[in-house]
Specification:
This is Acylneuraminate cytidylyltransferase family protein. The relative contact order is 0.17. The model has no long low-confidence stretch (mean pLDDT 94). Helix content is 28%, strand content 20%. It is an alpha/beta fold and 231 residues long. The strands form three sheets. The protein has a six-stranded mixed β-sheet, sandwiched between helices. A two-stranded antiparallel ribbon has the order 2-3. It has a two-stranded antiparallel sheet with strand order 7-8. It has six helices and ten strands.
Amino acid sequence: MRCLFLITARGGSKGIPGKNIKPFVGKPLLYYAIDTARKLASDKDICLSTDDDAIIKAAELYGLRVPFKRPAALATDRSGSYEVILHAVDFYKQQGKRPEAVVLLQPTSPFRTDQHVREALALYSDELDMVVSVTESASNPYYNLFEENPEGYLERSKKGHFARRQDCPPVYEYNGAVYVINTASLAQMPLSQFTRIRKYVMSAEDSVDLDTPLDWEIAEFLAGKRSRTGA
C-alpha cells in the first residue's frame, strides 16, 4: 500500500510556545515524529507540513527536506486538519504521486513508536475510512459525565444504571498519536463525517499528548521514569 507519512507542525503554539522544536529529553520534539516515520518509510514518502521557518530549518538540519511551506491561510488557530491534509495530498498528486493512505503523525505524541504505527496499519483496509489511535477514557458518559437538561439540572450523558464505573461499557478518546486515513474517503468528506472507523488502542502512558505546560511536565516525568527503569 502506498502511504504518505504526514507530520503536521504549525508554528504558532500558544499552550507551549515553540513546542514543536522545544527540546524534549535531549532533542527537539519534532524529531521524535521524524524518527518514527523514518523507521517506516524513506524520506521521499515523508512530508512535513509547516508554516514556520524555524521548524523548516530544524527539519533540514535533521536531514529531512521540506517540500513546501504551508500557506498562512492553513496555519491559523481555526485551521482544521482536514484542509491541511488535503493540501499535502494535492501537492503530491501534482508531482504524480497518489498515496492510497495518509499516515498522520502529530509531533505532540513523543511516546508513539514505529511499533504502534505498524500495529495500526495492520488493522487498516481500503474498506475503512480510517484507523485511529485511542486510549480508554477515564471519564464515562454512563457514570461520571453529565449534561444540563432544559430545567437546569444535571443528567448523565447516557442512560444506564451502573453502580461502578468498571461495569460501564468502555468508551474511548482519540489520543492524537496515529491516524491512518483512506485518501479516497478524504476526497469525499472531512474526517468528522467518517463512519467506517476502526480503533487502535494505546496505553494511557503512551497516549500522552503535549498541549499544556502540565502535559510537558508529566511527559518529562514519564520519560525519566522509563530511563531509570529501562522500560
